[in-house]
Amino acid sequence: MIDIEKREEFDIEIDKTVGKPFIDDAKFSTRNVDVFYDDKQAIFDANIDIGKNQIIAMIGPSGCGKSTFLRCLNRMNDTIQGCHISGDIKLDNEDIYHKHQDPVLLRARVGMVFQKPNPFPKSIYDNVAYGAKLHGLASNKIELDELVEKSLIRAGLFKEVKDSLHKPGTGLSGGQQQRLCIARTIAIDPEVILMDEPTSALDPIATAVIEELMIDLSKKYTIAIVTHSMQQAARVSQRTAYFHMGHLVEVNDTNTVFTNPEHQLTENYITGRFG
Amino acid sequence: MNKNTTEIIKLKLAKRYAKEKRFKLYGISAIAVSIAFLLSLLINISVTGLPAFQQTYINIEVDIDSKLLKLDSQYSEQELFRANYSKVVKQSLKAMFPGVKGRKQKRALRQLVSKSAIYQLRDFVIDNPSVIDTKQSLWFLARDDVDVFMKGGIDRSLPESDRRLKDFQLVWVDKLLSENRLEKRFNVSFFTEDDSREPEQAGIKGAMIGSLLTMLVTMLLSFPIGVSTAIYLEEFAPKNNKWVDLIEININNLAAVPSIVFGLLGLAVFIGLFGVPRSVPLIGGLVLTLMTLPTIIITSRAALKAVPPSIREAALALGASRVQTTFHHVVPAAMPGILTGTIIGMAQALGETAPLLMIGMVAFIADVPQGITDPSTVLPVQIYLWSDSPERAFTERTSAAIMVLLGFLIVMNFLAVIMRKKFEKKW
Amino acid sequence: METQQHISQQYNKELESVKSKVLNMGGMVESQVKNAVSALIEQNDELAKKVAESDYKINKIEIEIDENCAQLIAKRQPAAGDLRLIIAIIKVITDLERIGDEAEKIGRHVQKLVSTKDDTGMHAELANLGEKVIAILHDALDALARMDIEQAAKVVETDKQIDEEFNRVSRVLVTHMMEDPRNIKNMLHVTWCARALERIGDHSQNICEYVIYLVKGQDVRHTEFNLDQQ
Asked: Do C7 and A271 touch (CB under 8 A)?
């Protein structure tokens, strides 16, 4: 085994993100983003564009800051005490950390799916309808029914649950719960969906179903996914970003990253030399 | 595995199992001791208290003579109310025991029946005026001494001077017994009557109503205040803020403050400063609110803390505001815990005596309180009062009241368990 | 070949073992080619026979390495450098096996030349080509063993000299055939040997191109490769 001391040997200087972090048709663009938890800096100078209707995968060893970065994109970090962010994060050229930007509105535009499936302890129907009711997206019961059905169909769950819409969502299997969470997210029709290790609690079959769904959803939504499974990043994403100890080391086309990464740290990580 | 290692483990195995067995034994014996104590307490109370649910009645042939009542042929309602029923009862008793001589014995004879017999007769006559100038066979409450004797509380073999019932009284009681004029019946009046100086007339209705009103005040005040405090501290208050920390420490300390201190506080602040009347359920409720609040806050916070953060994140990520997240998801999920905590806090308050002594709820109140500003007493205080009374018959009433109080507490705790089971959510 | 270690020691061992097998195969192929060239120049029937009959060993080791690579892909899902290494190995061994086949062919032609008692002495014309091919194969295997892209690039360049030498030899042989048509049969054997040597040079060039792919992640086949371009 390689011990921690030995890792220092290949502690390679990280000056600047290598690869192609910037693209033309950007949905999100971040510039000089630093994130601190109290005095501890979690993200150092992250510069990256996230393309429209693309899936971007963020990979890196545990504690590298990829989840922290993801949570900056819909201001979920606001709820954490002592977390503060500097730099620009722009969604369609609007600064999302501007003081007039409302985090509630932002989160309606930028949905999020979490690592552990977290349906509300309510019925399947209520889970999906909650966001729509919250934002008043349906004016009557019929519209709401339609919206729920549409969302469940898009999430590929409708066939399985159409006879048990009023049973609790917590009674579904792990993969179904995660698809319910995705249905709940797309019910409010966001522009971007952030996924924080969405399949790490699921079995390979359920994972494959969700990955299929992601690729399908990317036609309509911009998706950013954090994953520990490099294979998953390779399978679903168009672009891959590699984080290392809070630094954004490399952003490149997924094909490039997995066959011929530019940075030695990326190479070391994806070939299993540490991480 | 190395053979040597296996040997070493084997050697120690017996010791390890012995230790486990010993520990199990300690546990079982501790539980056995506590169960024994609990059982002896319950049995003791039941044995003493159960007789109080029965009451001795005496049958008397009453000659409702209008002359004795000092009523003319034409009488007003007021005259009927004020008529001399006492004389009628006295004369009827004399008629049953013709040989009674002397002042002392005559008085003793009159005291076979309870004082309430006069009022009972009065109410009977007012309700049925046609019984005037007829002979009626009526059952009256027996005096407490007779009651105690009937329940086996007086030993005939004792010397006369040590007995509450003298020899001549025993003769009467025997005569009554032989004529089937003494009977034990279920003691309805224990639940329907107020406190009284006469044990055979004393009931717990007043104390129960008082307790109910006090609990109502406590509940209405402590539940909203406690739960909102808990929600604020858990969901909205900034973490690591020294003021919040100070409040938290103080709440935790308040839970450990002796309850009598809350009584003193209530006396000084509510009665002294704000002029709330003493001895009323309102002040009792206020003081008990102070006492229950820490319990409710602490248990509610624990219940809120137990709600998985993933639920909050899910709601926030859907664009719910923090208030919406809290009230749509977190509080409903924590409700069973909050309710359990509240009920347990209430049960604690129901059994509390000390702080109420400080605010005058210990007074003798013979009327059922009609509202939260009427003087009243509460069950535990009633128990305290009765346990202090010299009459022998109050002993059994004290235990009976304890049984009623325990019954309420058990019901409340049971309710808490049911609530927890029913609303418990699986994640 | 690589300095940094995987977290999985087993993975390291498996990769190392495949790599050493490839180098081992390279050594076998190199000695076959050397023997074939010696047999050709010296018209040594016995050596030629030995070369012709030893090729099965190379085929066997090729199959073994192929299988190891398939298992590595299935079990480890190699990525980036490791992926390129395995792909390069699979390709390198194909070329090595072909080189082995060419050496075998030379052996068989030499056997025939010896049996017809060829007295033209034209086989000596191949001495220079043989030397050059042995050198280029050696350099290619060296570049592979050391992952040396500079040497690999040099080998790619040297292959042009071999092509020129082959053209020269071909002209000489054709001229000879036209002068004396009775020798055409033997001359064809010599021509095929020359052809085989030229092919060995091409395969060596391929191996070097895989080395460049492996190290730089850039496919330089069918392109003008220049080390400075990046």
From this structure: no
At A114, the amino acid letter reads F
Q: State how far Cα B341 lies from the chain centre.
A: 21
Could you give the domains of chain B?
Answer: 55-185 (no CATH), 205-423 (1.10.3720.10)
Task: Check CB contact under 8 Å for C217 and A273.
Answer: no
Average pLDDT over residues B392-413: 89
**Torsion angle, alpha carbons of B410, B415, B420, B423, to 10:** 170
Answer with the residue of higher pLDDT: A275 or B222: B222
Q: Is a pLDDT exceeding 50 seen at residue A2?
A: no
A10 touching chain C per CB within 8 A: yes
pLDDT of residue C123: 78
Give me the residues of C, 51-80, that contact A with CB < 8 A. 76-80
| Global confidence as pTM | 0.76
Q: Is B361 on the interface with A (CB under 8 A)?
A: no
Q: Which domains does chain C have, with CATH numbers?
A: 9-216 (1.20.58.220)
Report chain A's mean pLDDT, rounded to a whole number: 87
What is the model's pLDDT at position B83?
82
C51 Cβ partners below 8 Å, 6+ apart?
C32, C35, C36, C39, C103, C104, C106, C107, C110
CA nearest C217 in A: which residue? A260
User: What does the pLDDT look like over C42-88, one tens digit per residue?
Assistant: 888 899 999 999 999 999 999 999 999 999 999 888 888 889 999 99
Those residues whose C-beta lies under 8 Å from the C-beta of residue A185, and which sit 6 or more positions away, are: A111, A112, A113, A131, A193, B317, B318
C85-99 pLDDT, tens digit each: 999 999 999 999 999
Q: Which residues pair with A231 in a beta bridge?
A: none
Distance between CA C115 and CA C43 in Å, rounded?
A: 10
CB pairs under 8 A between A and C: 47
Does residue A78 contact residue A71 with C-beta atoms inside 8 Å? no
Q: Which of B310, B321, B333 is opposite residue A114, by nearest beta carbon?
A: B310
Question: Is there a contact between B314 and A114 if contact means CB atoms under 8 Å apart?
Answer: yes
Contact A262, A250 (CB under 8 A): yes
Sort out which chain A residues have CB atoms less than 8 A from B320's CB and list them: 104, 134
Asked if residue A62 has pLDDT above 90, the reply is: no
The answer to whether the Cβ–Cβ distance between B318 and A111 falls below 8 Å is yes
Q: Please name the member of A111, A112, A118 whose beta carbon is closest to the beta carbon of B311.
A: A118
Across the interface, do A134 and B239 touch by the CB < 8 Å criterion? Answer: no
From B225's Cα to the closest Cα of chain A, the distance in A is 25
Q: What is the ipTM of this complex?
A: 0.86
Buried b (16+ CB within 10 A) or exposed e, A120-129: bbbbbbbbbb
Q: Which residues of chain C have pLDDT under 50?
A: 1-3, 229-230
Going by beta carbons, is chain C in contact with chain A, meaning 3 or more pairs sit under 8 Å apart?
Answer: yes
Contact A260/C80, CB-based, under 8 Å?
yes
* Separation in Å, CA B24 to CA A71, B16, B29, B270, B279: 50, 12, 9, 51, 50
Q: How many CB atoms lie within 10 A of CB B115?
A: 18
> How far away is chain C from the Cα of A264, in angstroms, using its nearest Cα?
10
Rounded distance between C-alpha atoms, residue A65 and residue B205, angstroms: 68
Round the average pLDDT of chain C to a whole number and report it: 88
Query: What residues contact residue B57 under an 8 Å CB cut-off, 6+ apart?
Result: B139, B140, B141, B142, B182, B183, B184, B185
User: Is the four-CA dihedral A236, A240, A244, A245 of positive or negative sign?
Assistant: negative
Q: Which of C7, C84, C217 sits opposite A272 (nearest CB)?
A: C7
CB contact under 8 A, A258 and C80: yes
Q: Which two tokens stand for residue B155?
A: 């030993």
Q: What's the CATH architecture for A18-119+192-270? A: 3-Layer(aba) Sandwich (3.40)
